[in-house]
Design brief:
heterodimer, A: about 375 residues, alpha+beta, Heat Shock Protein 90, five-stranded mixed β-sheet, rod-shaped, B: about 240 residues, Rossmann fold, two-stranded antiparallel ribbon, 11 helices, about 45% helix
């Protein structure tokens, strides 16, 4: 999760930077290029005031377009509204210019094209091409109305090539940069995912190693003895050893499941094997039990495994909250004394044998 | 031989009723006599109600908990032994607070039900392991204060030791173990809502020397002690 968020942000940040660059370019062009030409040719216009008003309309369209594209996901209707206002303003400006000199004094064609780039640069390239074509067609129509001559046509084609070419080039560059940023973000994201997978694999590997070591110590020699025929399956002692190892295997599996009631869960797992042997195991809890740390749980379940492996027909396991921790007790018909684990990890173990019945209590103290 | 204790079984599952009846029949001294079985509580508070001393009550009849009906049964003079598969400590405490004498889980039935009925008929405390569990788990603000010895005896009993083993573990006699457990139970009878069954249990505990009136005084009001049990020898008498 933490790996994914920044890469998405990263690609978003790049895209915003490209948009800011386009906004600066378009606003700069309209101010310096369009505005400069307007002032420079002010004497040539039929009505300078009308041209200024159109320049302001275009400036407002650019301002609105900038806000809209910087805000994020673009509404296509709004984008096209901005573009069409620029188109109408530039056509009006051309129509109001003196015939024959229109291209020499026009400030509006360039600004309208750049406004289109601003409004449409996040949309499909063909939309921008259609817009620029419509713009060129409108200018051409005004020229034709005025009476087209060869000089005008040459100037028109030169301007078309220069201005439209630059606008398409900028739009294409933004598209290319966008897709590069996207690819970079995706690559970064998959790198993060790969790193997370590697870390998880390492943890699983360590856990497997620990389980494998635990098995090497006791279970493997036992299985080897059985396989080699040196151990006698009829020997009750051997059967107890087998029961203990089977319960430990079961517990190893249960230890992987970290649950709020881990201890109860692990005791159930330890009891499973005894139940398969026909021992009736009851597990009861009294009160809200505290969470016992892993190493202490292991001492307690070791005691459970030792007792359950010796139980003949019944065992009762209880867990009760006591003043400073938890008392886990075992009552089982073991018949004889069972070797219990030594006190460790804050767990104290006591026991009492009464005839056939063994009572043992493992108390874990959290202080 | 003492007179037989008469009992009614209220249980919605006929198989369970039959099982309980068979435990009653198999008592070697035939101390309990089954006089009525019913699948619900109808007729138990009327004029012609069954003449049983003790009602063995399944806490869930036709899918509904009937702990709220216990005070009514107790009010007309029945002693109630709850017999249920619901061993949730909160339900056990609610059952005892409502005036039931004892709670026996279905797992404990064969071993404890007849004994619990006999104890109830004599107004003597009877504490099953599931009841001990509920008392150990009890964290309600109004719970009685149990001594360390009482708590230890309850804990070992809940853990599954026989009372004789508990005695050896605590270096006391088996009889003293019974005293501790009964005293804890009697302290519970002195708390919560009032019920004639609880007063009777308390009176018997005092008579038997299980508990001294002074030991329950902090947990019950003087007014109530004076009004309800003038003959129990409260302080000042």
């Amino acid at each position: 999760m933490t790996g994914v968020q920044p890469t998405t942000e990263l690609s978003g940040r790049y895209q915003r930077a490209f948009t800011v660059a386009v906004v600066v370019l378009v606003a700069g062009w309209h101010l310096a290029g369009g505005g400069g030409q307007l002032l420079h040719n002010r004497a040539d216009y039929a009505s300078f005031a009308f041209q200024c008003a159109l320049w302001l309309v275009m400036a407002v369209a650019i301002a609105v377009g900038s806000v809209v594209v910087l805000r994020g996901p673009l509404d296509w209707r709004l984008a096209w509204a901005v573009a069409l206002i620029a188109l109408v303003a530039s056509t009006a400006s051309a129509a109001a210019s003196p015939a024959g000199q229109m291209l020499a004094v026009s400030w509006a064609w360039g600004s309208a094209g750049w406004t289109g780039v601003l409004a449409l640069h996040r949309r499909r390239m063909t939309e921008l091409v259609w817009f620029l074509a419509a713009e060129a067609a409108a200018i051409f129509a005004v020229q034709a109305w005025d009476g087209l001559n060869r000089m005008d046509l040459a100037a028109f084609l030169a301007l078309l090539a220069w201005s439209t070419g630059a606008q398409i080039a900028v739009a294409a560059a933004v598209k290319a940069l966008d897709s590069a940023a996207n690819r970079a973000a995706i690559a970064a994201r998959s790198e993060d995912a790969a790193r997370e997978r590697a870390a998880t694999a390492e943890i699983i590997q360590a856990a497997r190693q620990a389980r494998w070591l635990a098995l090497q110590e006791n279970t493997v020699p036992l299985v080897a003895e059985l396989a080699a025929g040196t151990a006698d399956p009829g020997d009750p002692q051997l059967r107890v050893r087998c029961a203990i190892q089977a319960a430990r295997l079961r517990r190893l599996m249960a230890e992987g499941d970290e649950l709020p009631g881990s201890l109860v869960h692990e005791l159930h797992a330890s009891a499973d094997v005894a139940e398969l042997r026909g021992v009736a195991v009851e597990i009861e809890t009294a009160g809200t039990l505290p969470q016992v740390p892993g190493p202490a749980r292991r001492v307690i379940t070791d005691a459970a495994i030792a007792i359950l492996a010796s139980a003949r027909s019944q065992a009762r396991i209880t867990l009760a909250t006591v003043a400073a921790g938890i008392a886990v007790s075992f009552v089982a018909d073991t018949g004889s004394v069972v070797l219990l684990p030594a006190a460790d990890q804050g767990v104290a173990i006591e026991h009492q044998q009464d005839g056939d019945m063994l009572w043992a209590e493992a108390r874990w103290n959290n202080r | 031989m003492e007179q037989q204790v008469t009992v009614a079984i209220i249980e919605d599952h006929p198989v369970v009723t039959e099982g309980v009846a068979s435990w009653i029949r198999s008592d070697s001294e035939q101390r309990v006599l089954l006089v009525h079985t019913g699948r619900d509580l109808t007729g138990l508070d009327g004029e012609s109600r069954p003449p049983a001393e003790v009602v063995i009550l399944d806490l869930e009849l036709s899918g509904e908990l009937v702990t709220a009906q216990i005070p009514g049964l107790v009010a007309v003079g029945y002693r109630v032994v709850a017999f249920s598969g619901h061993s949730d400590p909160a339900i056990v405490m609610e059952t005892l607070d409502s005036g039931a004498h004892a709670y026996v889980s279905k797992e404990e039935g064969s071993e404890h039900l007849v004994e619990a009925v006999l104890a109830a008929a004599a107004d003597r405390p009877y504490v099953t392991r599931s009841q001990a569990r509920a008392m150990l788990a009890d964290q309600r603000p109004g719970r009685p204060e149990l001594s360390q010895q009482e708590l230890q005896a309850l804990l070992l009993w809940f853990q599954g030791m026989s009372k004789a083993s508990v005695g050896r573990r605590m270096s006391i006699s088996e009889n003293t173990v019974r005293q501790y457990i009964s005293r804890a139970r009697a302290k519970y009878a002195a708390t919560g809502r009032t019920a004639p069954s609880k007063d009777a249990l308390l009176a018997r505990a005092i008579e038997d020397g299980v508990i001294k009136p002074g030991e329950i005084m902090p947990y019950t009001s003087f007014a109530r002690a004076a009004a309800n049990r003038p003959s129990l020898g409260g302080p000042g008498q």
